[in-house]
Structure formats: structure tokens, C-alpha cells
Amino acid sequence: MTGPLSAILGFGLFGVFCLAFTEKILPIPPSHVLLLFLGMTAAPDSSMLAILLAVTTLASFAGCLVWYGVGRRIGFDRADRLIERVGRYVFLRPATYHKLGQAYRRNHVRVSLLAQFIPTVRNYLPIAAGALCLPALPFAMATLLGATIWNAGFLLTGYILRGSGQDSFTVGLRIIVIVVALETAFMLALRYGPAWRRRIRLALG
């Protein structure tokens, strides 16, 4: 994987933009892997790290706007059918998409922000935002903020690992495992949280 990534990075910041934008459209490699790699290999100093953050965030934001536009274009019913057909191929369960889509109706700004911290969901939930015709400006602001925080966290981690003297691969793998575990916990809370809350209320009288 590092061979093709290194080749694309040979195009400089344009290559970085293309990688981050493409990851938003099709998450291969996943964003946390890509950002850790960039932080460890493409940021020789803090100034370049800041530039990488700006470029990758702009690319991520542009990818979100593309999917938002797709959602607006095809409408809610066809967006649902699209996720039903292709969701399993990009590790996005249709049930998860539907639950978050319902949450969008209640608080679209908060969900737009939180969605940026969930791998795979962060790529495709903008389709639901567009399909539901949610206001573009609040969606864009929340998405931009979430993408900035997400990208900064992994870029900075990769940058720190580069000069730590530790085995970067091992530490990076541990971080990825933690991210996946947190994602799984979020999905379980989303799926079973309402039932648990009802049981707690019943138990408390």
C-alpha cells in the first residue's frame, strides 16, 4: 500500500489533496491510516504539518460536499436504495445509515459534526444530509469543524510518532484498533441505547 501512496505523494500537495479527496469518496485506505501515514512521512516540521492539515481538511470537506450534492440530486428514496445496494461493499450497514438519517431530522448540526468522527459513516452520511435537503450552511460548518478535528488528531499523532523513536507501525496499529473499538461502541449505543434507556426508566419507576 505504501508504494502507491508514496508515488501519489510524489506530486506534492496536489497528490495529498487527491489522496484525501479520493478517501472521502471511497475509503481505501481508511482515513485514519492515510492521515497517520502522512503525519509520519510527509511532515518534516510543524509548518508542513499545518499545511497538510489545511490541504487534507479542504479535500475532506470537498468530498463531503460532493456527496451532499449527490443526495440533493437523487432525493431521499433513491439515496436509501443506493445505500441498500452498495453499503455492504463499503462497510456501511444500511440499518446504521437509516438510524443516523433519522437522527439527522432531530439535530442535523450535531449529527453532521459527530459523523465526522465515525469511520465510513463520515464518508457517506452527507448523502442523507443532501437527500433530506438540510440547510447547506450549517451542514458545511459542522462538517468542516469535524473534519478539521479528525484530521488534526491523526496527523499530529503520526507526526509525534515520527520523532518518538518507537515502533511507528506497532503504535499506529494500536491506535487504529482503538478507533475501531470506539466506532463499534458507538454503533452498539446507537442500536441498543434507546432500549437500555427504557429499561433503566422502568427499573427506576
Automatic annotation (TrEMBL):
InterPro entries: DedA_domain (IPR051311), VTT_dom (IPR032816). Its main location: membrane. Keywords: Cell membrane, Membrane, Transmembrane, Transmembrane helix. Residues 30-159 form the VTT domain. It is a multi-pass membrane protein. One of its GO terms (cellular component) is plasma membrane. It is found in: Cell membrane. The chain crosses the membrane at residues 46-68, 124-151, 171-192. It holds the Pfam family VTT_dom. It comes from the Bacteria. This is Alkaline phosphatase.
